[in-house]
# Entry
Amino acid sequence: MVDAPLTCDVLIVGGGPAGLSVASRLPDDVATIIVHQDQEIGLPIRTSGGSWTDDTARLGIPPEMYNVLEINEAYADAAHTLIPLQGNLPAILDTPRLYKWLASQSDHKDRELLLGTKFTAARRLGDGRFESTIRTRDGVNRKVLSTYLVDASGWHVAVLRALGLTDARPVRLGVGTEYE
# Structure
């Protein structure tokens, strides 16, 4: 017996900041499935998060999810100085907590977050929809039919590669925000 395909308006591949942000901004009546390869949102930590206080305020990120840097310390040989910062201050984000908060922003009846699930394939159907294949950690393959398909897989560009829209991955320049 083959399970009936899952259906949604938007399939988002990637449960990091890009995918979760897209999901949180979609209207409530848009049926959405988010596929995330890890068992938990925000863990394991693969990136650090830095931003600016003006941006965190504009994005509505709660202040308890970041630490503001008000002083910069500079070292050179035997010298050390403290430099007070002013204006639009840098902020270090609590990445796992921020990701979980983003996920909570799109938590309602028309959103489904599939954890421990890997996107494996996609193709465009003759009617313009997308048919994607996902695989759970226990090896179960499922089809997903969607009107829209969002590639939020980061440097993997998994959807673009699956659709034949690129044949190469971007060059990794580092680990974390350096290549995101």
User: Anything to note?
Assistant: The first helix runs from residue 17 to 25. The chain has four helices and eleven strands. Helices lie at 17-25, 53-58, 95-105, 158-162.
